[in-house]
Amino acid sequence: MIFIQLILAHLLGDFILQPNSWVSDKENRKLKSKYLYLHVLIHTVLSFIFLWDLDLWWIAVLVGVSHLLIDAAKLYFQNIKTKKIWFFTDQALHVAVIGGVSFYFNEFDFGFLKDEEFLKVLMAALFLTSPASIFIKLLLSSWTPVNEQTGSLQTESLSNAGKYIGILERLMVFTFITVNHWEGVGFMVAAKSVFRFSDLAQAKQRKLTEYVLIGTLLSFGLAVLTGILIK
């Protein structure tokens, strides 16, 4: 229960009750920003309110002090290039502190690590990320449309966008199958057809269209097969 209470306090304090103007002031003035300390005070008060137990006052103080140290480190070490990395690192450290407190009170039960069903689902989900991407890439290697002048793939897109789209679609298809909602798979196929293949048709690149179509069918097929095997 402590974990949920502190996570709720964290979400309120870090996102809902922190205006963008405070964030900008903290990034510009760092430890000289009054909003940094006001932000920490809000976290401390919220933690105390959600715990609502005088005997647990030290947890609220611990959350506040750790929040100050973590935020200060982020403000001094982040730059434009590492801002995204530091954001996720900052959030992970805050959650780690909350998790450590919860672990101290024996709130976590690691028995799920011996649960066969959980391990099977975890194994399948991991397989459908990067390993499945590598399998599909190798299967399509002989058909990859390459520009004869540049020697690169004949497409313009965000860096690694196709890889992450594939991972997300496979995980979503796998989720739909494991919860017995096959109609969701149909929705995914229809949605991708509308957004992807319409653009390819307008580009009038038949080889690239066929390449993407084969890759999409392999991606969906692999996710469906994995889902069926796990079930």
From TrEMBL:
Pfam families according to UniProt: DUF3307 (PF11750)
Alphabetically ordered keywords of this record: Membrane, Transmembrane, Transmembrane helix
Signal peptide positions on this chain: none
InterPro entries associated with the record: Phage_phiKZ_Orf197
Transmembrane listed as a keyword: yes
Residue intervals passing through the bilayer: 35-52, 58-77, 84-106, 118-140, 211-230
Domain of life: Bacteria
Coiled-coil boundaries: none
The protein's name: DUF3307 domain-containing protein
Organism expressing this protein natively: Chryseobacterium caseinilyticum
